[in-house]
Amino acid sequence: MEVVLKVMAIVVISYLLGSFPTAVVVSKKFFGFDIRSKGSGNMGSTNAFRVLGWKWGIVVQIIDILKGLLAIVVVANLIGDGLDLGSYTYFEDSTLIRVIAGVSAVFGHIFSCFVGFKGGKGINTAAGMLIGIAPIDVSIALGIFLLALIFSGYISLGSIMAAITVPSSMFVRYNIFNIEIPGYHFMIFFFLGMSLLIVFAHRKNIARLARGTESKFPKLQLIKIHSRHKS
Hints:
With about 230 residues, the chain is mostly helical. The protein is built from 10 helices and no strands.
């Protein structure tokens, strides 16, 4: 019973931590309006950059990343330290507990109870969680994100590609380069699931990218490729 109560506490606290609507609070407190009424209507950092400017966009992004990271390094470690799940799972207990905390925070951000269960897309909070669990794979994903942003100017495209990169990187490192990754057989499926969730959360962005109507940040597109059509 104690194990169940502690796991429930980790889930609830991490969810509430992830549910904190950073962009909504910042926009209302410092700008006098709800960010969901402007731009794309989303409360994520991309819309914050677009509506509130890059300085406040960075503030929103950092706080949203910290939500996922704190769920791993604070909530999971304080409540789940030394927690023995016994026969409940075949996976490494510490890895599973951290993942439970992290995914609860991500769900909190996407389905925030403070804003009618309609939150952001979860990419920053997921990034914070992944930094605490798989820093190497996140670093590779960050590189892919920056490349996509530099070449396209689309933050949404970079986010989608970064989400797909994390499980791909882990798979390649473990199966091709034979690098030992603790908890791999659980994490590979978990990260794949998280990637699918993030891609699903970006489904409207994907549709706009396909139509060519997605908003971009031209100043961030440092390398422009011009296609030449032969007549």
